[in-house]
Structure formats: C-alpha cells, structure tokens
C-alpha cells in the first residue's frame, strides 16, 4: 500500500513541477528573455552559458571549440572548427548563424532562459523516472496507467520540440500559445494518473456533473481568450520597445473586453460550484482550491488592468489560471 502512496506523491510532485515550468516560462516572457540563448539546446554554443560580455566577443589568442558563438559586427557567428584564434578576427574560422540573428548579450536574460531550460530538463528526468516506476508498479497489473505515463513523455517531447521552434522562429506568438496549451494538457494527464491510482468512489450528481463541465469549458475559453490578449500585449509592448506601460491596455482591441466579461461568468460559475460542493466531503478540498484560484486570478487580472500591467503580476495571473483549470479538471473527474 505504501508503495502506491509514494507513487502518488511522486506524481503530485510531477504536477507541481509542471506548474514551476509554466511559471518559469512566463517569467522568461515577461523579462523578454526568450532569446537570451539564441541557440538550442546549447546556449551560445555552451552547456553552461557565459556570465560576462567579453566571453561572447572575439578574443585574440583564445581556444575556441567548434560550435561556440560570438557576436561580431552585430551578427551571430559560430566557430566552424576547434581552433586557437590569432591576433585578429579571421572570417574563415566562423560561420554566420542562420536560424536567427539575435546578436545581443544580456546576462540576466541569458540566465533566466537557461534556468527555464534547466527546470524543463528536470521535468524530463522526473517523467522518465515516472515511466520506469509506472512500469515496475503497474506493468503487469494495470497497463493503462503505464500508457498514460508514457503519453506524458510523448507530449513533453512534442512540447520540447515546440520550444525549439519558438526559439528558431524568433518567438512567433501563435506557437507560444500552443506551447502553453500543451503544458496544460500534460498537467491534465498527470491528474488522470492520480485519479486512476487513487480509485476513489465518484460523487453521483447530474447537476454537479453539468455544472463542473460547463465551468471547465468556460474557463478553457477564458484561457484561450487570455492568450489572445497576451499575444496582443506582446505585439503592443514590442512596438513600444517595452516602455510606456500605461498605454498597453488602452491599445488592446475588443478581445480584451470579452476576456474581462467572461471572467465574471467564470467567477460566478466557480462560486456556485463551490457552494454546491459543500455537502460533499470528497469535493470540498478541490472546490476550495477552485474558489481560491478564481478569486486570485480575477484579482490579479484587475491589477493588470488598473495598474498598467505590472511585470511581476503577469506570471502569477498565468500560474493561477493554470492551476484553476487543472483543479476544475480534477474536480470533473470526481463526479459522474
Ligand atoms: C477566470 C478569470 C481569468 C482567467 C482564467 C484568465 C486567464 C488568462 C490567461 C491564461 C492569460 C494569458 C497569460 C499569459 O499567457 O501569460 C491572461 C491574460 C490577461 N488577462 Fe486574464 N484571466 C482571467 C481574468 C482576467 C480579468 C478579470 C482581467 C482584467 C479585467 C484579466 C486581464 C488580463 C490581461 C490584461 C492579460 C494579458 C496579460 C499579459 O500579457 O501578461 N484577466 N488571462
């Protein structure tokens, strides 16, 4: 029995780590660090990125490894062989990097992006360990759990590939949204595994079933609307060189008003769902998480709107809305 408990705790850890990855990704975005590493999976051609500007500038009499990057004449170059440089830059030793030409170095952006990649890497290890554990515990008895665990790795591999595309195409916004929706899908799979292993009896209630399904769908729509608003913010902020934050909200189009209005519908549904869940002990905890998350998300949304989109609030708004939808999904699995 204890081994199941430990497996459950590990799956919960996986779920929590996914939220850490979502948060890290959002911090990358709000600090504009996505291109902090112009290449992938290395960063400026290194396993550990540079910490000083001079490391990415041409250095005379320096040993360069094949694939190492420098910024030269506002352009990204990489060493086409391992060599020792002479007194002056020799074009024959270097190749122009073609995938993008983000020829800037900002140590904070580079390290934020790098830490983001590390959190994703740790997630990869957690998922591999999860598959091995699932195979040992359920390989012969409940294969479906093993398959769900395997699907975590497939989805994550796709997500990593999408991450690479995002970098190679200089952060094209639609792909960023897809990237986020996939992260939510991976979290949903983790919730399914927890639900299956716990095998707790479901609450029977037609009204609760419908109410939770509708709330889940409304929040999903709200998240897609949110990513639409966020894509606009990305464009507006870029056009204003990430300054004049007081102008960002006023430049949003009608999707923002829809997002703001649907928020109230989502909030009312969540409060009603909480209220309806009170008589059911098994639902109370998840219902409380839903209530807390929706209150937090709406509050942070209002702060975004009235306080000119403070950078620190952006990742929190995303984090709470992600936890909200996953909690709603977990809730939905508990009723039939
Ligand atoms: C149930 C309630 C809500 C949910 C689930 C929700 C969800 C989201 C999501 C997922 C994003 C995209 C964030 C990102 O990709 O970084 C977003 C962005 C945004 N939301 Fe909401 N939201 C809610 C309520 C509100 C409210 C009430 C407001 C304000 C009136 C608001 C204002 C914004 C703004 C301004 C953005 C763009 C922020 C940015 O670019 O980082 N949201 N929302």
Write a structural description.
There is one protein chain. With 336 residues, the chain is mainly alpha-helical. The chain folds into three domains: 1-36 and 106-199; 53-96; 202-336, no CATH class. Helices cover 65% and strands 5% of the residues. The protein is built from eight helices and five strands. It has helices spanning 2-30, 107-138, 143-168, 173-198, 206-239, 254-277, 281-306, 313-333, and strands spanning 63-64, 69-72, 75-79, 83-84, 94-96. The strands form two sheets. Strands 2-3-5 form a three-stranded antiparallel beta sheet, with no helix packed on it. Helix 3 (143-168) runs antiparallel to helix 4. The longest helix has 34 residues, at 206-239. The protein is flat and about 80 Å long. The model has no long low-confidence stretch (mean pLDDT 93). Protoporphyrin IX containing FE is lined by residues 26, 180, 219, 222-223, 226-227, 229-230, 233, 259-260, 263, 266-267, 294, 297-298, 301-302, 304-305, 314, 317-318, 321, 324.
């Amino acid at each position: 029995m204890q081994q199941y408990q430990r497996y459950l705790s590990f799956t919960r850890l996986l779920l929590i780590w996914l939220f850490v990855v979502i948060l890290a990704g959002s911090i990358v975005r709000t600090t504009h660090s996505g291109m902090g590493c112009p290449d992938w999976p290395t960063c400026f051609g290194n396993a550990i990125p540079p910490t000083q500007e001079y490391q990415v500038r041409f250095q005379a009499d320096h040993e360069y490894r094949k694939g190492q990057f420098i910024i030269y004449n506002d352009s990204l170059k990489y060493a086409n062989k391992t060599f020792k440089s002479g007194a002056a830059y020799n074009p024959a030793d270097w190749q122009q990097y073609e995938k993008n030409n983000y020829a800037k170095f900002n140590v904070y952006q580079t390290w934020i992006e790098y830490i983001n990649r590390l959190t994703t890497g740790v997630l990869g290890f957690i998922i591999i360990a999860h598959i091995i554990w699932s195979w040992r515990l359920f390989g012969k008895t409940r294969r479906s759990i093993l398959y769900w665990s395997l699907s975590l790795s497939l989805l994550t591999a796709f997500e990593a590939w999408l991450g690479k595309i995002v970098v190679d195409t200089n952060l094209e916004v639609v792909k960023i949204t897809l990237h986020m929706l996939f992260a939510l899908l991976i979290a949903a799979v983790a919730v399914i595994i927890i639900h299956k292993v716990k095998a707790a009896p479901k609450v029977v209630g037609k009204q609760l079933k419908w109410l939770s399904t509708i709330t889940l769908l409304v929040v999903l729509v709200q998240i897609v609307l949110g990513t639409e608003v966020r894509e606009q913010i990305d464009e507006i902020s870029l056009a204003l060189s990430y300054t004049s934050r007081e102008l960002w909200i006023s430049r949003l189009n009608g999707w923002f008003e829809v997002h703001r209005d649907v928020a109230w519908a989502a909030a009312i549904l969540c409060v009603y769902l909480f209220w309806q869940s009170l008589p059911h002990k098994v639902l109370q905890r998840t219902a409380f998480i839903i209530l807390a998350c929706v209150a937090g998300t709406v509050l942070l949304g209002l702060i975004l709107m009235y306080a000119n989109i403070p950078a620190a609030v952006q990742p929190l708004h995303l984090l709470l809305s992600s936890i909200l939808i996953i909690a709603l999904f977990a809730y939905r699995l508990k009723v039939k």
